[in-house]
Amino acid sequence: MKKPFQVKTPSPVRPAAPPELAFAQSPLGARLRTVLSDPLATPGNRATADFLLRNPVRATAWGIEELAANAHTSTATLSRFARTLGMSGFSALRAEMAEVLQGVLQPVEKLRGVVAREDGTLSVVSESLALTLGNARTTAEGLDPERLAELARRLAKASTVYIMGFGLSSHLAAMLALDLQPFCPQLVNVVEFGGTEVAAGRLMNIGKTDVLIAISFPRYADDAIRLTQYARDRGAYTLAITDSMASPLAAVADEGLFANSTHPVLSSSSVSALLVIEALVTSLMISNGDHVQQAARLTEAISAYMFSPEKGRKR
Fold this sequence. Notes:
5 strands, 5-stranded parallel β-sheet
């Protein structure tokens, strides 16, 4: 799987990657991902590795008791996990995580400080709004326009673009399909209706000249993971739109676009996913001058169904 996207600017100073991505790309993050993908690792160790990859900032701020409570594990499990990584204990693990994150913690702390000054006892609603804004900001910083352009070219050349999302992700898939449809020679919304059996049937003929965009956020759909692996096994290029490198969908796809989706109440937030979808669609629309004509033809075709002041005055 290729490296996650890093934003590029003309300046030699590059913007910081989102904390979760920066941590996951570090040597320590790579060791945690190895544990996560190791079939011989204990369930407790895999769950701990998954939690640390998703919550590196919080994990460095919590003590071992608080971390154990939030990770739904025990302090003994955390201590053993640290020793399996070759460290003396949990304190050493937390110190190494803090060292890795030192360069990316400042934006998070600044946002937390601004929100705290406005309301010392944050309500759940205000916390969710602040967190969603932070998700969108860090997601945008993690998108590389050059890589998006490469993906746009791949989509334009594909014989068929398949888009797949189950459950709540099906709405995201439908929006992506609607926006991409005018600019792809052939497009299939895999889970438009009919459930898993119909979705599998639609993917039956996927092949080497095709692209599958699979979308899944917590709680992950097992069908999305299995069908993405099926498409990749048949030689199709697979792109995951998901929340983290720790996502099981990221592990089976060729490449990933990551949208921070943390939310204090919902299983996941969709705001950053929409940001990623719009960025991908924008890249495709501007990748070819012919797309301007296609957009004009689309506008002409639907203009009869759109409201205009002139129509309003005739009524």
